[in-house]
Structures are given as structure tokens and as C-alpha cells.
Write a sequence for this structure.
DNA sequence: CCTTTCAAGCGAACCGGTTCGACGATCCGG
DNA sequence: CCGGATCGTCGAACCGGTTCGCTTGAAAGG
């Protein structure tokens, strides 16, 4: 069932059918209706490959999501869902690319073989070959995340530095003096994964400003690792009374570890961090956290990409989001740190 | 950068380049190397649209995941991830289709416009227009899930009936006599969503066989709904001592509700169900549950689809999985049901 | 009545690959 | 030395759309 068949049955030429469909030239009402009738009758739809070949656009965008770890986190799902939906409203399909390793096979497929008109990159690293590579090629892409040199890029990002710092200040304001940081897995931190690096940086800086005693940890993306990490924290420094985490997958394990160590949240121990709102509300007590607006970020990324596709020479734009901390139930004033090994004095209970 | 350019620079014809690349006819070592050098130098990759047009295959499969609710569950992410990875090993890309509503726009795009060679359908309903429609068209697709008439279909499914029944028997064996069922949201149940229907059926039948007192509930896919649902359960029948759930997103809320009602898990109340293993391990105490092998299901679905694409007239195949219940920490012997309103006798503590 | 204008439609070329039939060169056996 | 098989390569057609330039017929204008 191709356009030639339609043309034959409607008694017109192929080009007339094409123009009737696209509206790029005038077609008399009479023939338009005749064509439309045939199309409806046969249920014809123009072949996407042929169309893509002819006009050089595939109406597809690539969503490059990476081999971040051995599995995916809930946040990624929110991104994927919102990107797909936003793309659909613009009549674009979304092609998933399982990996983002530079010069990787599947990456080559997307770009080299021109399967997509543009791409959205997830899981950005501070020094990201993929971003640099695409920028050098002038290939339309939008990053969900921000590299170390975001000046001339298109991206929508989260200010992880500010967010982690806000968490620290929140804890400091509650009187906590000894806190820990539970980061994403070590490999991610080492490879310069943006949120891990910037989060750590914001945490460290804000803690220094407030004169807090800190320890920082990396933690696998699963509950068991979270629990182990928490045990390590209490072992290394029993006086710890609070922690900040970026690791939503470990959250359940962290809570379990606290329960088993008899640290009641938030009476004995405060927990906060940067996670997707849905996760924050899943744990008990619900997590006071900077909620990652994944849905909004995905939508905005698509919007930026659409803009860029429409006007290839537009000047780079970006959105840096700083969601507020949602006060829930997992943080409270510092009480007796540890097992009363330290007096209950919170020297600088500011603000 | 197209095949003609390569041909020109290598001093051969376009067809020779094509044959050198595909190997479908012999090309002398000499010219092959000459061509390869040019290709490497220019970084040429054949255009996917043109190739798809020429040989009628897109090397893309569609993953139809539906507007199940207002958001996606963790399980879906696991499916998506495993499907994408499995497809990649077969040199296939995955196109995401946000919806599965029959005769829906995005569905039409995938099939009508021939963007994909085959499809994997998620979130199957017992009477599923999509499946029927595709079957009528003879379009290669594999369902993750099983309709009411799975005889001549390609699918990989979970025996939700057996799984829910196993949960019930597990609880009955522990002496529980009054249990509840927490299903997915009501709209899903009403529209004939497979797991909701079959799970409910298995629960009901097994409970009847064991002579248990039951109540069944639908529950929104989020923690707040889970908590509300649990409160309702205890309000309706305080003697309830256990529940079975299919709703992993509500799990956190259920636990919270239990904690607030002072029902200790598993001492006072047992919880079990059918959820992804990762979620089961996130809550405390960890959930005794039939772990949904999402990763395996996605992989098998892709394998079936590949088989079907290779041999269009192959006879339908399927996999019905019945994962065992993983004993963790959320179930235990029935103690004093409710607040000791009922004596602690478990009349039929069968094997 | 003759020219100009314009709407409507047609044919051909093109997008970038794949594939089929043909053709010249080389090699072999008789 | 000739005839047929084999190898390597080429040209052309094709996949199913889009788009440009041209033709035609009718209406409008002088």
C-alpha cells in the first residue's frame, strides 16, 4: 500500500497525492476529497522510512541513557516517561540508546546512521566526551545535566552544588554538628559523574562554612549497600547525627540500618538529600529532601531540543533548576548524638 | 557523505561498495581494502532510512508501554532496560511508544508508518484490542502479559493466578485466617488489566479453598494511597492479620500505615505479594514475595520476537513463568490477630 | 479576440541505499 | 586454440516518498 497505489485508485498522479497530504500546494477540493476517500478506505499511511529519506528528517529523537551502573534508578524512569510524552506532543518518537560510552556502537548507530534528528543525553559527566563530540559535530542535542564547561551548551540541569549545600545548612540549622554524606557508587564519582561530583562539592563546602565534622561515603545503588554504608558510618563515627544522600536506591537500606542500630528517625538521626519526590514519600518517615523535578526536566529538555531543531542557529539556552527542600518528617533538631557519648550541646543552632 | 561519495573516492561503483559492506557478493581483497580505507578515513556509515527503505526492514522494534496510570512503576523500568539491552545484542534499536490505546495516534505511527519491524506490548489486558488488532494484521509482536485467549499468541507472562494463590497459601500455612488483598488501582482492574484480574482471581480462589476470611481492595499507585488503603483495611476488619499485594508503589505506604497502627511486621501482621525483587528488598522488614523476574521477561520477549522476525511463519511460542516465593522477613506465624479479639487458634495450619 | 494570469495537475528527478542482470577478464579442460 | 565456467565489477532499476519545473485549461483583462 504505497502512494502510487493511492494515486492510481484516485485517478491522479503521485505528486498530487503528496501535495494533497502535505498541503504544500493547492489541490482542488474535489480531488482532495477523492484522494481522502481512497486513503480512508485503504487505511493508508505514508512510509516513515521513505519520508525520512526524502526530506532528511526522521521525526525521531534519541534518548541516550547510559550504563550508569548495573541497573537503572527510579529517577531515570521518570525522565524517560516525561521525555517520551513530551516528544509525542511534538509528533516525535523516541529511540532509546542503551549506552553513552563514547564512540560506542549504539551511539554510532544513532548519529552515524542518522536514525534520529537530535538527542537527549542523560547521566552527564563533568568531562563528557559524548557532549564534546556532539558539540564538535554541531549535532542537535540537549543534555540533562551540566558538564564542567556548560557555557555554550544546551542543557537542563539541577544545581546539585546548591542543593547539597542547602541540605547541609538545613541540618546545621537544626544543630547537627557531625554529619555524613552518602554518595552514588564510587565508580560514578571517579568517572566524574555530575551529580556525584557537584553534590559532594556542595556538601563539603557548606559543611566547612558551618564548621561541621563530616565524613563522605560512596554507596552502591541498592538497599543492601545502603545498609552496609550506614553501618560503616556509625562504626567510623558513632557521634554522627545526620546524613545527606543523593542515592535514592540506597535509601531503604539506610533506613533499615538506622532502625537496626536503634537510631530513631528523626529523633536520634536526621536524613535528607536530593531524590525524586516519589521516593521521598515512600519511606517512613517521609524524607525531607530537595525533590528532583524529573518530569519537568524531561519536558524542558524536549522543548529545548525542539527549539534547536526548528532553528539550527539559535543561541544556546539552558535551565538550571534549584528546587526547594520539601520539609517532610525525616529531619529534626539534633538530640543526643550517638549514644550520649557527646553532651547534647548544639553549639551553633543558627537561625 | 553517502555511498556514492565513497564509491567515487575509491574509484569503484556504488554497488561494489554496497557488496563490499554486506558481503553478499564476492569483492576482491584489493578493492575491499581500498574501499575500507576510504570509509575509515571519512567515518562513513550507511544511512538507516535509506537502508530501511531499500530492504524493507528498519532494524527497530517498538516497545509499547501504556498510559497505565498517571505514572510509571519501577517494574516498567526494569522491562524497558532489559528489552533495550537484549535488543541491542541483536543489533536492534528500541522505539518507545507512549501509549497503547487502540487506533491511537502513536500506535498508528509505529505500525502504519512502518517505523518498526515488530513490537513488544506491555501492560496487557485480558481483552486487549491491541493484541487482537496486531494478531489480525499478522504483525510480529510479543506480549509481556497474557490475554484471556493466549492460545495462538506470542507472549511471555507471569502466572499471576498461581502467584497470588501461592501467597495466600503461604499465609494460610502460617495460620492466618483473615487476610486482605491490595490490588492495583480500580481503573486498571475494571479495564481488565491482566495482573490485577488474575491476581485477584488467584487470591480469591485460594482463600476460598483454605476457608479464609478475605477483603479485597484497590489502591492507587503511590505511597499515600497505600497508607490510606491500609487504614481502611484495619478499619473495615481489625482482625486482619495479613495482606497480599501486587502494588509495589503502594508498599511503602502500607508499611507506614502498619507502623502507625502499631502493627509490627511480621509479629503482628504479615505482608507478602508479587513485586520486583529490588522493591522487596528496599522496605524494612524485607518483603517475602514472588519476585517478578522483569529482567528475564524482557530478555525472553526480545528473543521470541527475534525468532518470529527471522521466521515469519513459525508456530507461536510463549513462556509462562512462575517464580518461587522468596522468603524474606515480612511474614510470620499468625499471632494474636487484631488486638486479641480472636483467639490465637489457627484451625487448619496445613503443611 | 488575443494576451495575461493563475489554479490544478503531471512527469521526472532526487533522497541513499540494495539487488539483479549483464559483461569483460581470467582460468580451465579438451 | 577454442569454449565454457568463474570471478569481479558495473549500470540500471527499485524501495516510497517529496519537490521542482512545466503544461494545460479556464478565467480575467484590455
Amino acid at each position: 500500500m504505497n502512494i502510487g497505489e493511492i494515486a492510481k485508485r484516485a485517478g491522479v498522479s503521485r505528486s498530487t497525492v503528496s501535495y494533497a497530504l502535505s498541503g504544500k500546494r493547492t489541490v482542488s477540493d474535489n480531488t482532495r476529497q477523492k484522494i481522502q476517500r481512497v486513503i480512508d478506505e485503504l487505511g493508508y499511511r505514508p512510509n516513515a522510512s521513505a519520508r525520512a529519506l526524502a526530506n532528511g528528517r526522521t521525526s525521531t529523537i534519541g534518548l541516550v541513557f547510559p550504563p550508569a551502573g548495573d541497573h537503572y534508578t527510579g529517577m531515570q524512569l521518570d525522565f524517560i516517561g516525561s521525555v517520551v510524552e513530551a516528544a509525542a506532543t511534538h509528533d516525535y518518537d523516541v529511540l532509546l540508546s542503551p549506552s553513552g560510552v563514547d564512540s560506542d556502537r549504539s551511539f554510532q548507530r544513532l548519529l552515524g546512521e542518522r536514525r534520529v534528528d537530535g538527542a537527549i543525553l542523560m547521566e552527564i559527566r563533568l568531562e563528557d566526551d559524548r557532549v564534546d563530540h556532539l558539540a564538535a559535530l554541531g549535532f542537535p542535542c540537549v543534555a540533562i545535566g551540566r558538564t564542567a564547561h556548560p557555557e555554550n551548551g544546551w542543557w537542563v540541569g539541577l544545581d546539585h552544588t546548591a542543593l547539597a549545600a542547602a541540605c547541609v545548612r538545613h541540618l546545621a540549622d537544626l544543630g547537627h554538628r557531625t554529619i555524613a554524606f552518602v554518595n552514588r557508587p564510587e565508580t560514578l564519582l571517579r568517572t566524574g559523574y555530575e551529580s556525584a561530583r557537584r553534590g559532594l562539592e556542595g556538601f563539603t563546602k557548606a559543611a566547612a562554612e558551618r564548621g561541621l565534622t563530616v565524613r563522605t561515603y560512596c554507596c552502591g545503588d541498592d538497599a543492601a549497600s545502603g545498609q552496609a554504608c550506614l553501618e560503616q558510618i556509625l562504626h567510623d563515627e558513632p557521634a554522627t547525627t545526620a546524613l545527606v544522600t543523593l542515592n535514592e536506591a540506597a535509601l531503604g537500606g539506610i533506613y533499615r540500618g538506622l532502625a537496626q542500630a536503634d537510631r530513631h528517625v528523626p529523633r536520634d538521626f536526621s536524613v535528607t538529600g536530593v531524590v525524586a519526590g516519589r521516593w521521598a514519600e515512600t519511606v517512613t518517615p517521609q524524607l525531607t529532601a530537595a525533590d528532583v523535578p524529573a518530569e519537568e526536566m524531561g519536558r524542558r529538555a524536549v522543548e529545548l531540543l525542539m527549539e534547536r531543531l526548528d532553528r539550527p542557529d539559535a543561541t544556546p539556552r539552558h535551565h538550571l533548576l534549584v528546587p526547594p527542600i520539601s520539609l517532610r518528617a525525616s529531619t529534626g533538631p539534633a538530640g543526643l548524638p550517638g549514644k550520649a557519648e557527646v553532651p547534647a550541646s548544639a553549639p551553633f543552632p543558627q537561625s
About this structure: Chain B touches chain A through 56 residues (CB under 8 Å). Chain B has 14 helices and twelve strands. Residues 294-310 of chain B form the longest helix (17 residues). Residues 156 and 319 of chain B are 5 Å apart (CA to CA).
